[in-house]
Specification:
This protein is of the alpha+beta class. It has twelve helices and 18 strands. The strands form five sheets. Strands 3-2-1-9-10 form a five-stranded mixed beta sheet, with helices on both faces. Strands 13-12-11-17-18 form a five-stranded mixed beta sheet. It has a three-stranded antiparallel beta sheet with strand order 5-4-6. The longest helix is centred in the last third of the chain and has 24 residues, at 258-281. The radius of gyration is 22 Å and the shape is flat.
Length: 354
């Protein structure tokens, strides 16, 4: 009995515990629960010297502002890991930042690192990610399916739940899915053909084709953050954005109606509701009862779009609960780590997800 409490207590007191969520356009990490940090999951390489020079948010802020010899390298594209060398570089950058900001905490090497990874990750990807940590001096790397980290986050924050079954939908940057997890068992999992990256591209191409203006992803994200899917609200608010005119290659300001943008992505969310409907039709009466009592939880970047839950409720006659907290996977990792039984049972260090 003492082992359940002794295991996490001793290790968190003696050795720093690092948690990472790395499977999207951002890397989220935490050091012993003290701070939660988001860094863009990109690096900048100087092609003349073939050395990485900028990382994370710094690298993101320099997009389009450097000479041609500087190349942006993305570690994750469309939800898939594509560059493990740059991943190792940004991990090194993160550990250096932690050491500088926590000088009162002594550690030569990170002893324990817990990583939330996508459900359909391959053995090759797991080994490559592990190597990216090992080259930075990490001694032990433990991987956990993000379906489990979602589940234990929700169980931690939702107090009035009447069951241990959670139905949740992650509308993330590169890949989206809907899943059902019951007490550490993945009951169902379905990929959804919708992501923040896809919505970004739809908006980007629409502005380019209609206005002949190329805008930065920074402005696209600004548009998405102010959208409202409730088209009955008659939201006539407009945004003024700056882009590059493709006619004469000069800066040009344009005004875009938010209702106009809502209309063009409406079809994408209609398709989302159809996919959810097909998913729900295959569920047992018991799980449908759980959904009726507790709703479907929405996480990920697109969850922040105003009116999404009411739109889906109208389309499917089902309650949806939006979780806007960015660090849900990190909280889930810590909840797993604090329980020795769950830690051993769910760790993917020596085995793959079934």
């Amino acid at each position: 009995m003492l082992g359940k409490y002794f295991f996490p207590y001793v290790f968190t007191k003696i050795f720093p515990v690092f948690c990472f969520d790395i499977g999207s356009d951002t890397i989220k990490y935490s050091f012993n629960k003290n701070t939660y940090v988001i860094e863009k999951n990109i690096c900048t390489i100087d092609t003349y010297t073939n050395k990485y020079v900028y990382f994370g948010n710094v690298s993101s802020n320099l997009i389009g502002r450097l000479d041609e010899n500087f190349k942006i390298v993305r570690n994750v594209i469309n939800g898939k890991f594509v560059d493990f060398d740059s991943l190792a570089e940004i991990i090194s950058y993160i550990f250096k930042n932690i050491r500088q900001k926590n000088k009162n905490v002594f550690f030569k090497k990170p002893i324990i690192v817990c990583v939330a990874v996508p459900h359909e990750i391959t053995e090759i990807e797991i080994n490559a990610i592990a190597d990216a940590f090992y080259v930075n001096g990490v001694i032990n790397v433990y991987f956990f399916d993000e379906c489990f980290t979602h589940f234990f986050y929700l169980r931690h924050v939702i107090n009035n739940i009447s069951t241990n079954t959670f139905v949740f939908m992650n509308l993330g940057y590169g890949k989206s899915f809907i899943s059902i997890v019951n007490n550490g068992i993945i009951v169902k999992y379905l990929d959804i053909n919708l992501s923040a990256e896809k919505i970004r591209n739809v908006v980007f191409k629409y502005i380019l084709n209609k206005y002949n203006v190329k805008v930065s992803l920074e402005f696209v994200d600004k548009i998405l953050s102010t959208l409202n899917l409730d088209l009955t609200s008659k939201n006539y608010e407009t945004l003024e954005i700056l882009g590059l005119s493709m006619l004469d290659l000069t800066p040009k300001k344009i005004k875009i109606s938010l209702n106009e943008i809502s209309q063009i992505i409406y079809d994408e969310f209609n398709l989302l509701s159809e996919n959810i409907k097909l998913f729900l039709e295959k569920l047992s009466p018991e799980i449908l009862t759980d959904i009726d009592n507790n709703g479907i939880f929405i996480l990920g970047g697109l969850a922040k779009i105003t009116g999404l839950s009411s739109f889906l409720k109208k389309m499917l006659d089902t309650n949806f609960v939006v979780c806007n907290f960015d660090f849900y996977n990190l909280v889930g990792l810590y909840k797993i780590y604090e329980n020795r039984y769950l830690f051993k049972k769910l760790s993917l260090k020596s085995r793959l997800i079934v």
